[in-house]
Design brief:
single chain, alpha+beta, five-stranded antiparallel beta sheet, four-stranded antiparallel beta sheet, 9 helices, 11 strands, about 30% helix, globular
């Protein structure tokens, strides 16, 4: 997948538009629907203070984080608490993306309330045959975790791209399979992704307007009471092949190689 994508999009373009989480926010700001700032050094304290006290609930991500590593949540209920959070970022070092914490919809929170449970939607902008979606998957966190990534213990299940219903049981990266979520008891197969048509239309609009030069994007999407919002995008690893043991290479290559630069 990476070798194929490298033939269509330069690594520099990938790093600037996708890998850099804050630059991606600037490109896709209208689809975030929440406040986001970048924190590099002590000079960012005033901006951090004002933003944190406005929104109160924060998600803090290392700028170069992947698979949810290093991500943590914090509450800023006073100036003293906010200062302690900022000092922690300075102690850890590096660059951080600080986001207003997403308030997910009740429908998605049924899986696990401590994490924002998301849908990874694989989309293709093939200028010969148009927009395509390919086998999305639901990602659910575990009790007390703030992330839903499989690499951090999350459980995922495939979604039927035409209907938005889960088409498999759940599975984790250790290969353990679950008919129902082990913490919440919600059954995977057959569960309907809420407001699915809206999800598809939002992804399509994003791909065609802010990422038209990328033949393939994996979008991480969360549902709030106001609708679907984007968390980040990437050249999404097709780990959902792992769930049903059905390879996606031929379909992937068909959609990508039809892209007319």
């Amino acid at each position: 997948m990476y070798m194929t994508m490298g033939r269509y999009v330069s690594r520099k373009k990938h790093d600037q538009e996708i890998e850099d989480k804050y630059n991606f926010y600037l490109l896709a700001k209208q689809y975030f629907k929440r406040e986001v700032i970048r924190v590099n050094d002590v000079g960012n304290y005033d901006e951090f203070l004002h933003m944190a006290l406005r929104v109160r609930e924060l998600i803090l991500k290392p700028l170069d984080a992947s698979m949810g590593f290093g991500v943590f949540a914090a509450s800023a209920n006073s100036e003293e608490e906010t200062k302690k959070i900022f000092e922690l970022l300075m102690e850890k070092g590096g660059s951080w993306v600080v986001e207003e914490r997403i308030k997910q919809s009740v429908e998605m929170a049924v899986w696990n309330s401590s994490s924002v449970n998301t849908v990874r939607f694989h989309s293709f902008n093939n200028k010969k045959t148009g927009f395509h979606g390919m086998k999305p998957f639901l990602r659910t966190g575990r009790k007390e975790s703030v992330v839903d990534n499989a690499g951090n213990g999350g459980i995922f299940a495939n979604v039927d791209v035409a209907t938005g219903r889960l088409s498999t049981c759940g599975i984790d990266e250790m290969g353990r399979r679950y008919e129902c979520h082990p913490d919440s008891g919600v059954k995977f197969e057959g569960w309907q992704i809420p407001r699915y048509d809206e999800l598809v239309s939002t992804v399509k609009k994003m791909h065609l307007t802010i990422m038209p030069d990328h033949p393939y994007i994996g979008w991480d999407m969360a549902l709030t009471n106001e609708g679907w919002v984007v968390i980040e995008c990437n050249w999404g690893q097709l780990v959902n092949q792992y769930i049903d043991h059905i390879g996606l290479k031929n379909e992937f290559m068909e959609y990508v190689t039809g892209f007319d630069k």
